[in-house]
Amino acid sequence: MSTFELERDVDRSHMQVSDRVAIEIRNMNKWYGQFHVLRDIDLTVYEGERIVICGPSGSGKSTLIRCINRLEEHQAGGIVVDGIELSSDLKNVDKVRSEVGMVFQHFNLFPHLTVLDNLTLAPIWVRKTPRKEAEEIAMHYLEKVKIPEQALKYPGQLSGGQQQRVAIARSLCMKPRIMLFDEPTSALDPEMIKEVLDTMISLAEEGMTMLVVTHEMGFAEQVANRVIFMDAGQIVEQNAPSEFFNNPQSDRTKLFLSQIL
Amino acid sequence: MTDLSYVRTEMLSERDPPLSTTGVIGWIRENLFNGLSNSVLTLASLAFIYWVLSHFIPWFWSPTWNGTSLGQCREMIGAAGKESGACWGVINERWPQMLFGFYPVEERWRPILAFVLMFVALIPVLFNMISRRWNWFLLALVLFVTTLFVASGWLAVVAQVLLVVAMIWIGRLILVTKVSDRADEIKAGARRLPNPLMFSAAFVFIMPWLLWGGTVWAPIATAFGFVVGWGAFRVLAPVAGSLVAMILGVVAAVVWWLFLVGPVAAGLHGLLPVGLEPVQSRNFGGLLLSVTIGVVAISVSLPLGIVLALGRQSDLMLVKWMSVGFIEFIRGVPLITLLFVASFLLNVFMPPGTNFDIILRVIIMATLFSAAYIAEVVRGGLAALPKGQYEAADALGLDYWKAQRLIIMPQALKISIPGIVSVFIGLFKDTTLVSIIGLLDPIGLSNSIRADVAWNGIVWELYGFIAFLFFIITFLMSRYSMYLERRLRTDHR
Ligand SMILES: Nc1ncnc2c1ncn2[C@@H]1O[C@H](COP(=O)(O)OP(=O)(O)O)[C@@H](O)[C@H]1O
Ligand SMILES: [Mg+2]
């Protein structure tokens, strides 16, 4: 895997884990037809945590974080996000979705809208923010991801790394309390991986609660406060990054780490 | 072993392509005469084109514009020393009929005005390159020209003065500000003229009134039905929930349209009788009939088709199976069968005494027919969208309808443009089928013209003229679809 080296020191002054629960997953199970994808998942995420989830392909990482904003439905157990229980009640689902931002592997920007319109769409239509204010917010976040000059271009005119940064800014415009990342750098060239990870690090420095599915172990070591290893739909091991990488307990974890490092 | 290493010391500069591949000669060599078989094909095609034109042009170029019967045409052709030629006298004599059917001559300004106003109404819908000012200016201009032709008396003078004032005012606005300055003014929150789409919406009610005439209160009362439905929804929504209120709102509007529009319009007409001379549907004919059926069916079938496409993908089983059933049934039945049903069978099911207009019946059938095809075309567009687009919309918290309207449909419809326009072109050409149930569209008229002793035996000239009329309209439609595709191309692939 790529070995990501950070040039600057990570500023940890705002990276504090509070004791308030952001996400509570209790004994959660999910099936695709007969296939048992997620088995007895128990996970409590506190506000301000930066959790990296790793594991072999097909182990259910994507499915797990997609259950958190109900892009996938779970069939047993419970998920409470920010005090809201996820059930078939659509009102709750919409509320959770507007509190939780998500960044996808393939960006999923809206190709028929300019970058600026991509960013203002949800604030205007979901949050009912006036257009002018929404545009100011959008420009603020575009500056933060360092591409304000691309505001009037279409996504198709940007490089992959720029598109992914726009996608991050699009989520941030909704002022989410939690951010989910599903392999945000897996579709990118090495040069662009760095710019996206940089953006994610500055987000972490501001104290955002983050769940990141990634194989960028450099990122995990420097930024995460907890690393979770999944295999065959289960959480196999979790620990602080230093312990996780230097002293893995389970054989599966050891095997996985030996393959990717 | 030779040394394989190599280092470039000097970078190459840019050069022009060789002359033999550019310019006219280059193009001809490249495209028409590259290789033996292509050269042979080119020569054979040129010979064929020559052969066709050498027959067509002398036939077409025939001095018979003033002929009054087929016999006289033949004499004129003989006098010009030719063996054969077209007899254009029939077109000269009958073209107004081919365009308007038996629409009363002194009322023909109304379909013309409706047609011109249709363009004014369509501009803000179809194009986004014209400013609001120009659109309102155009409307004032059209109305002013109309008053010059058809109105007289002091009322007309007042209207003309008002329209001229409006034109001068808007014209001055257009002249004093540059387009780019105006864009900045609008950004800064300048007051704008009302959206011309208001007129487009009103035109929906103006058009039938212009064409069929009658009291002006009928379209006004019909339009008021939407206010009734909306009002019922607003009053009931807090009490009964939005879904129930929506259903009741629709019911209220339908009740209004079915039972109250007639009496209300008649009552208001008693108080203030303003109206146009009524024209019966059986007097409609020619291109007017085709365009009326085509325009209404096209504009209604698009939204209906979109709803059906969404219905087919719905999670609600009842909605899904109703959409599938409707689409498959309509696609399984030829249009001509539906037209026969419209013409003969529908009245059997209607309560006795109701007079359900024949053109309206045909329009409904044509609309349902093309809506089923549009639904399938749109479904293709929906299927072509990556799943990630739905997921991104969901993840941002957009609900189903907002996601459809803002994210999914704009992209799905863009993908479907060629298919949608094909359906519309097909629908417009299919309007000629109404001649089979006795309506006098251009084809129906050409049959009755040939029944006239003077023109008995004329075929090519009439069909050629009809083909020409249809070609203009369908060609414009296909050009428009290409323009739209180009305008909406943002993916930069
Ligand atoms: N929509 C689906 N239907 C059926 N099986 C699925 C679906 N999505 C994922 N799966 C299966 O579930 C398993 C977990 O998938 P995923 O969560 O995407 O794994 P990961 O992200 O860890 O690579 C895989 O075996 C995959 O084939
Ligand atoms: Mg995955």
Automatic annotation (TrEMBL), chain A:
Keywords: ATP-binding, Nucleotide-binding, Transport
Zinc listed as a keyword: no
Molecular functions per Gene Ontology: ATP binding
One Pfam family it belongs to: ABC_tran
TM helices/strands, residue ranges: none
InterPro entries according to UniProt: AAA+_ATPase (IPR003593), ABC_ATPase_HisP-typ (IPR030679), ABC_transporter-like_ATP-bd (IPR003439), ABC_transporter-like_CS (IPR017871), MetN_ABC_transporter-like (IPR050086), P-loop_NTPase (IPR027417)
Ranges of residues in domain ABC transporter: 23-257
PANTHER family for this protein: AMINO ACID IMPORT ATP-BINDING PROTEIN, PHOSPHONATES IMPORT ATP-BINDING PROTEIN PHNC
Family the UniProt entry places it in: Belongs to the ABC transporter superfamily.
Name of the protein: Arginine ABC transporter ATP-binding protein
Organism of this sequence: Sinisalibacter lacisalsi
Taxonomic lineage from the root: Bacteria, Pseudomonadati, Pseudomonadota, Alphaproteobacteria, Rhodobacterales
Automatic annotation (TrEMBL), chain B:
Keywords: Cell membrane, Membrane, Transmembrane, Transmembrane helix, Transport
Stored InterPro entries: AA_ABC_transptr_permease_3TM (IPR010065), ArtM/GltK/GlnP/TcyL/YhdX-like (IPR043429), MetI-like (IPR000515), MetI-like_sf (IPR035906)
Pfam families: BPD_transp_1 (PF00528)
Topology in membrane: Multi-pass membrane protein
Transmembrane segments: 40-61, 109-127, 134-151, 157-175, 196-212, 218-236, 243-266, 286-310, 322-346, 358-378, 415-440, 460-480
Subcellular location: Cell inner membrane; Cell membrane
Domain ABC transmembrane type-1 span(s) in chain numbering: 287-481
Domain of life: Bacteria
Chief location bin: membrane
UniProt keyword annotation of S-adenosyl-L-methionine present: no
Keyword Transmembrane helix: yes
NCBIfam families found in the cross-reference section: HEQRo_perm_3TM (TIGR01726)
Family as reported in the entry's similarity comment: Belongs to the binding-protein-dependent transport system permease family. HisMQ subfamily.
Protein name in the entry: Amino acid ABC transporter permease
Lineage: Bacteria, Pseudomonadati, Pseudomonadota, Alphaproteobacteria, Rhodobacterales
